[in-house]
Automatic annotation (TrEMBL), chain A:
Chief place of localization: cytoplasm
Lineage top rank: taxon: Eukaryota
Protein name: Translation initiation factor eIF2B subunit delta
A single Gene Ontology CC term: cytosol
UniProt KW keywords: Cytoplasm, Initiation factor, Protein biosynthesis
Matches recorded under Gene3D superfamilies: Translation initiation factor eif-2b, domain 2
Family recorded in the similarity comment: Belongs to the eIF-2B alpha/beta/delta subunits family.
Location in the cell: Cytoplasm, Cytosol
Species, as recorded: Didymella heteroderae
Subunit structure: Component of the translation initiation factor 2B (eIF2B) complex which is a heterodecamer of two sets of five different subunits: alpha, beta, gamma, delta and epsilon. Subunits alpha, beta and delta comprise a regulatory subcomplex and subunits epsilon and gamma comprise a catalytic subcomplex. Within the complex, the hexameric regulatory complex resides at the center, with the two heterodimeric catalytic subcomplexes bound on opposite sides.
Biased composition (Low complexity): 1-27
Annotated Basic and acidic residues bias: 32-42, 48-59, 75-95, 114-125
From TrEMBL, chain B:
Subcellular location: Cytoplasm, Cytosol
GO MF, one example: guanyl-nucleotide exchange factor activity
Entry similarity comment: Belongs to the eIF-2B alpha/beta/delta subunits family.
UniProt keyword terms in alphabetical order: Cytoplasm, Initiation factor, Protein biosynthesis
GO terms under cellular component: cytosol; eukaryotic translation initiation factor 2B complex
Originating organism: Didymella heteroderae
InterPro entries: eIF2B_alpha/beta/delta, elF-2B_alpha_N, IF-2B-related, IF_2B-like_C, NagB/RpiA_transferase-like
Highest classification ranks of the organism: Eukaryota, Fungi, Dikarya, Ascomycota, Pezizomycotina
Protein name, as recorded: Translation initiation factor eIF2B subunit alpha
Main location: cytoplasm
Gene3D superfamilies, per the entry: Translation initiation factor eif-2b, domain 2, Translation initiation factor eIF-2B, N-terminal domain
Subunit structure: Component of the translation initiation factor 2B (eIF2B) complex which is a heterodecamer of two sets of five different subunits: alpha, beta, gamma, delta and epsilon. Subunits alpha, beta and delta comprise a regulatory subcomplex and subunits epsilon and gamma comprise a catalytic subcomplex. Within the complex, the hexameric regulatory complex resides at the center, with the two heterodimeric catalytic subcomplexes bound on opposite sides.
Domain of life: Eukaryota
PANTHER family: TRANSLATION INITIATION FACTOR EIF-2B SUBUNIT ALPHA (PTHR45860:SF1)
């Protein structure tokens, strides 16, 4: 990946940026078990937050300029990108730096209030990321429920953990799960005296839940759409409505939303997509999409003789699940990794893809690797069909996969087994080579009790190797022949039309 | 047919089509359906829709290539549903009885047919501006609306242009129409060269633009048109010649073919054999069918389209623009138009 060319200087800058840091290297390996600050971020007013962050930032800058800090020039691109993630600050020394205005709205005002220790880990990882994806590392991923605000509902707490561990994965599933947990939130909600439900619920009760979910994993487009819809529904509630009635209506509305936009939509899409599978077809799909799975099973139930190729990739291996489910249902399945996609595509006759989102310029935002699969298919002039509920349409446009993307912890890239396989290479490390000259005994003693997390430490320590795991990529519209939604089959150019249609109702 | 004893939709459709040679299939279908409703004694919305459905099915089953026809029937059905569901939009009170609604429908149906007939002239007046003075136009005949456009351009005194006409290589059903257009154009002092399908690539160097008609415009902006249009599109694209489609907007079909073989009709174009059939030509062996045998093959049309009447699908990326009576659309705008109609 492109990050390999990253200069090491910002790494040094970032690790040394916190005044009271513990050495970054020692804490990096167990980033998953980090415990975030318990001070609830919500208690601080935005102004206070800003002040605090400003102070921190200045301290960091001072540190960076101090001895050992990198030349300013090298630090700039990195900082500039980081800058775009955080609220603009008034520090004078920043005026000289280029400040891109680009900012991802979904993450821009996330309160980052972590213990210094935590931050340092984050920084060290972030520093390891190259020029292009630095802006995506805005905040560390929440991996536990420590530090969640006291307002966060238990249902949301557990959901957040399921998000961050990928137990609930896939944008539709995440959206539905979120709405269901919001139902629990609304059910147990009581309007404080002196406020009305329509005014209070969204800002003061739902927002902390959403913030918490966002800290577990960035919100998906569909979740964003659903939240916008829900807020809209809540705000339109007549303040005169009795609370019990308003809550009941809300719960009902959520159920209707799920039924209309997901359940019924799924059925329509599935039925239409199944008719596109003809006898003798070889349907190729990438990773795993629930709607693609449903369509394939539907066609199989209808008795169409066809087979499926599942192309999959590291590190989530979502396709394994899909392949297993399809095979259990009696569909003929072949399973490839994306490394073999160019071979797989030769046998295929159609490509079915799931979507994370459809952009308004007709581009598909989906699991990383989708773009290469659809380009391969397009080169073979195979029809590429995207199955996507209209709830995943967004008015945003994407020109590349760099500006907007999601970065998952890079540790996930290396499986436990792979880390173990790498352990014997320890002697090749520059540091241990130097050490072994002086002290052979110590080195072997260390090898005696190999710890797989060591491998991650080596990578974190290394100057020229960075791990990067992005989750999504963007497929240009010209590689997509058809988008099947609950409104029927469309060319990708009609995405904005349908989006307008589905949001105006 | 068997489903409706009172009214024979198929024969009235055929009669309407024969009576007025200017009529296109979708319009004739709508006219036939209006007639069917007029003669029926339906008195409820559900009954009307049910009747419509039965007639449409009968009509579609009766002809080999219902793509163009289904554009009309679908449009009419959609129109019916929206108007029947919203009687208020017809300035009728909720108390008005169904008969009033029906009468409104019938008169509007007639209006639609009138408008559809006028649309060809409208397209011709739009489209003639695309032909620049001194241009050479390549077209592949058979389409009445292309004929109307070229005639209109020929009548205007300011445009001098030449036409290269790809004549149908076999006796297809619209061959006469093509001959008529050629002689009309020549009568207007427009030089016309007629070539065969195989000479398209050869002639392309002399061509400035390609204009073709369409049987149906599908959702992704591609067109379904007589066999040979796709290859003209491919060749035009490879030589960078603009490729325009002329079609009335009632030819927009809710259909989304992904490839040539994804059409909802059966075509007997590719017919693989291992033996030399003695009666090779009986099944319509590619293009080289002579007249006498072509007549014999006509009876096969009920099971599948023979190569003379076969159609192909031209994907949207080959098309520069679609000239309709409501303006000139890019292929991607077609789906937008269809969505407007359907939702």
């Amino acid at each position: 990946m492109s990050d390999q060319t990253a200069e090491p200087a910002p790494a040094a800058a970032a690790t040394s940026s916190q005044p009271q840091v513990a050495p970054a290297a020692s804490t990096n390996g167990d980033a998953k078990t980090t415990k975030p600050a318990e001070d609830a971020p919500k208690k601080l007013s935005p102004a206070e937050l800003k002040k605090q962050k400003q102070a921190e930032k200045q301290a960091r800058r001072a540190q960076q300029k101090g001895p050992g800090g990198p030349p300013k020039e090298q630090g700039t691109p990195k900082d500039a990108q980081k800058q775009s993630k955080e609220p603009k600050q008034g520090a004078k020394n920043e005026q000289a730096r280029p400040m891109p205005l680009r900012r991802r709205p979904s993450q821009s005002n996330v309160p980052i209030q972590k213990e210094p220790e935590k931050k340092s880990k984050k920084e060290s990882r972030q520093a390891g990321v190259g020029l292009f994806f630095g802006h995506l590392y805005s905040q560390p991923k929440q991996q536990s429920m420590n530090g969640a605000g006291k307002d966060v509902h238990p249902a949301v707490l557990s959901l957040g953990l399921q998000y961050s561990s990928y137990a609930i994965c896939g944008s539709t599933a995440r959206m539905v799960a979120m709405l269901l947990s919001f139902k629990a939130v609304i059910e147990s909600y009581q309007t404080p005296p002196g406020t009305s439900l329509a005014r209070h619920l969204t800002n003061h009760h739902l927002s902390p839940q959403i913030e918490y979910l966002r800290s577990c994993r960035p919100l998906s487009i569909s979740m964003g759409n659903a939240i916008r819809w829900l807020k809209d529904v809540i705000i339109k509630i007549d303040p005169a409505t009795p609370e019990a009635e308003a809550k009941r209506d809300l719960l009902e509305e959520i159920d209707i939303f799920i039924r209309e936009r997901v359940t019924a939509a799924d059925r329509l899409i599935r039925d239409l997509a199944a008719t596109k599978i003809e006898p003798g077809d070889v349907v190729l799909t990438y990773a795993s999409s629930s709607i693609v799975e449903q369509a394939i099973l539907r066609a199989h139930e209808a008795g169409t003789p066809f087979s499926v190729i599942v192309v999959d990739s590291k590190p989530l291996f979502e396709g394994k699940q899909l392949a297993r489910k399809l095979a259990n249902a009696g569909v003929k399945v072949r399973y490839y990794l994306i490394t073999g996609a160019s071979h797989a595509i030769k046998d295929a006759t159609k490509v079915f893809l799931g979507a994370h989102a459809m952009m308004s310029n007709g581009r598909l935002y989906s699991r990383v690797g989708t773009a290469s699969v659809s380009m391969l298919a397009s080169a073979q002039s195979l029809p590429v069909i995207v199955l996507c509920q209209s709830v995943k349409f967004t008015e945003k446009v994407a020109l590349d996969s760099i500006v907007g993307n999601e970065v998952a912890p890079a540790e996930e890239l290396l499986s436990e087994a792979e880390r173990r396989d790498l352990l014997p290479l320890k002697s090749m490390l520059p540091s241990s080579r130097a050490a072994s000259k002086n002290d052979d005994k110590a080195a072997t003693a260390e090898e005696e009790k190999p710890d797989t997390s060591d491998v991650l430490k080596w990578i974190a320590e290394s100057k020229n190797l960075h791990h990067l795991q992005v989750l999504y990529d963007v497929t240009p519209a010209k590689y997509i022949d058809m988008v099947i939604t609950e409104y029927g089959g469309l060319p990708p150019s009609s995405v904005p039309v349908v989006h307008r249609l589905s949001t105006s109702i | 047919m068997s489903t409706n004893s009172e009214f024979d939709i198929v024969s009235s459709y055929r009669r309407i089509l024969n009576e007025d040679p200017e009529l296109t299939m979708p319009v004739a279908a709508i006219e036939a359906l209006v007639e069917a409703i007029a003669q029926s004694s339906v008195s409820t919305v559900a009954e009307t829709l049910d009747l419509l459905e039965r007639h449409t099915a009968a009509l579609k089953a009766s002809i080999a290539n219902p793509i163009s026809l289904s554009a009309g029937t679908d449009l009419f059905q959609r129109y019916l549903i929206t108007t029947l569901n919203r009687p208020a939009s017809l300035n009728l009170g909720p108390d008005d009885d169904f008969r009033a609604i029906r009468n409104h429908l019938l008169s509007n149906g007639k209006l639609f047919v009138e408008r559809a007939k006028q649309s060809r002239e409208k397209i011709a007046s739009f489209g003639k501006h695309f032909i620049r003075d001194g241009a050479t136009v390549l077209t592949n005949g058979g389409s009445r609306v292309v004929g109307a456009l070229l005639r209109r351009a020929a009548e205007s005194s300011t445009i001098r242009f030449k036409v290269i006409y790809v004549v149908p290589s076999s006796r297809s059903s619209d061959a006469n129409e093509g001959d008529q257009t050629v002689s009309d154009l020549r009568a207007h002092n427009v030089p016309v060269a007629t070539i065969s399908d195989s000479a398209v690539a050869y002639s392309l160097g002399k061509v400035d633009m390609v204009i073709v008609g369409a049987e149906g415009v599908v959702e992704n902006g591609g067109i379904i048109s007589r066999m040979g249009t796709y290859q003209m599109g491919l060749l035009a694209k490879s030589k960078g010649k603009p490729f325009y489609v002329v079609a009335e907007s009632h030819k927009f079909v809710r259909l989304y073919p992904l490839s040539q073989f994804d059409l909802p009709i059966e075509q007997k174009v590719l017919d693989f054999k291992v033996t030399d059939d003695l009666k090779v030509s009986k099944t319509g062996d590619k293009e080289s069918v002579d007249e006498g045998i072509a007549d014999m093959t006509l009876k096969h049309t009920s099971t599948g389209l023979d190569s003379q009447d076969a159609v192909d699908f031209t994907p949207p990326d080959l098309i520069s623009g679609i000239i309709t009576e409501s303006g000139v659309l890019t292929p991607s705008a077609v789906s937008e138009e269809l969505i407007k109609i359907w939702f």
